[in-house]
Protein: Gas vesicle synthesis GvpLGvpF
Amino acid sequence: MTAPAPAPAPAPRSVYVYGVVRASHAMPPGRTGVGERPAPVRTVRAGALAAVISDAPARLRAKRRDLLAHQDLALTLGRDGPVLPMRFGMVAPDEESVRRQLLCTQNDCLAALERVDGRIEMNLKALPTEADLGALVREDPEVSRLRTAARRAPGYEASVRLGEAVARGLKRRAAAAAATVLAELSAVADATVHGPEVEGCVLNASFLLDRRGRRRFEGAVERLTPAHRDRVELRLTGPLPCYSFTEGRA
Structure:
C-alpha cells in the first residue's frame, strides 16, 4: 500500500501594502484594512524596515470607505513616527516579495523616512472665480473688445466668442493670483511640489511642513484667501500623509 501523496502547499496569498515604516515603529492595536471584509493589519519586517500590510481583498475597488480606511491608517501611523505611505491600491504577490523589496530599497527608504520625520503634507488647489466680472472687462482687452462687439451685433456666435474669452480671462487672472499665493506659502514650507493637473484648477500644489508649523501655514492661507478672493478660490486640504515627498518606496 502506497502512502498518500502529501497535500500541496497553499499558494502564497497576495497582500495589500499601506506603507513603509522603521522596524521599531509601534503598530496601532486592533486595526483592520480595506475591503468588504477587512483583514487585520500586520507588518513584514526586513532589516531596519517594516511594511504595513494586510491580506489583499478578493475584489478591490476605490470606494470611499476603503479610500478613507487607507488614508486614516496612514495618518494614524504618522502620529507615532515617519511613514512612507503607498497610494491606494498597492498589492504585492506575497509577503516574501515585499520583504525582498524592502531589503533592495532599504537605504532609500531610510533616507526618505528621515526626510518626512515630524512632518505633514498640506495640499492647495486654486480655481478661477467669477467674482467681479466688471474688473475683468476693464482689465482684459480681449474681453472688452468682444463685449463691445457683442453689444453692437448680438447673436449666438458673438456670445460664444465672448464666453470663451471670459473663461480664458478668468483662468489667466486666477493663475496670476495663484502664483503670488504659491510664492508666499512656499516661503513658510519646508518643500513644495506641483501635483498633476486637475480639471478646473489653475494650481495643485503640495507643501511639506513641520507639524509645529501647521497653524502658521493655515494662518497664511486664511490671510491670503480674502486678499485674492476676487480672482481665485483657494481650497486647502490636510494634514495628509506625505504622499508627495517620499521616494524609494517598497
Observations:
- Residues 120-132+169-245 form a domain with the Alpha-Beta Plaits fold (CATH 3.30.70.100).
- The mean pLDDT is 86.
